[in-house]
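Appendix B, example 12.
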Amino acid sequence: MCPRPNPAAAARAAVAAAATAAAKGVSLPQAIRSQVGIDDVKTDGRKRRWEGHKEARRTELVDGTLAAVRTLGPDAGMDEIAAEIGVSKTVLYRYFSDKSDLTTAAMMRFIETVLVPRLGSAINEDLEEFDLTRTVISVYVQTVADEPQIYSFVMVGGSGAQVLADSQKLVAQMLAFVMINRMVDQGSETAGVETWAYSLVGAIQLAVHWWMVEQRLGKEELINYLTMMVWSAISGIAAAGGSPEYFNAQEHPLPEAPPPID
């Protein structure tokens, strides 16, 4: 058996943080900051209480923004959002520096309350590897498809690159945790897990973004193609026992295509 590498601990903590953040009243941004090594600054009690009040008010406004976008569409401006929420635009600017700041907060809130809990539940299901692969892909695609207005607002509306990168890191760590556990059980090498996890997350997110913009495929077609690609990669890694040396030493003829299915 191969020893579990260091990323396993971080990935396990990431899954736990994602699964319990809402239940414990801890926001996902805090969970992400703890996973990526950003320490909280020590503050006195009065400042903590004020920051807690401010964070609660921001959360209310972000939830209102998400509801407004579902009604008004992804192109809604600050004036329209404020009117839909029932506050003045001045109130929004008191808590958010500009629309980019608001969309960044909205993206994190959507990840916190919708995407990561669904992915966490899927990852923790006791499924065979292929079924787990398809389920996780389906959950991600379905979550995005369920919220086209929100997706367009947070992904095209100028959300912060660092927040997006941190959220991607959390999802990749969740995936790495699953891959490490499954590969260790099979006696495979796990040194490449982080590389594979980040590659898969990036590929799936880019493909789904293209699909959301272009809409050239049906949802099930997209899931089928993504599952085919991801499972082929996982199968190849498993066949090589996770070893690039073994993989490179093999011949790599391109298989012939099967006959057409009638």
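The longest helix spans residues 45-72. The CA atoms of residues 34 and 161 lie 18 Å apart.
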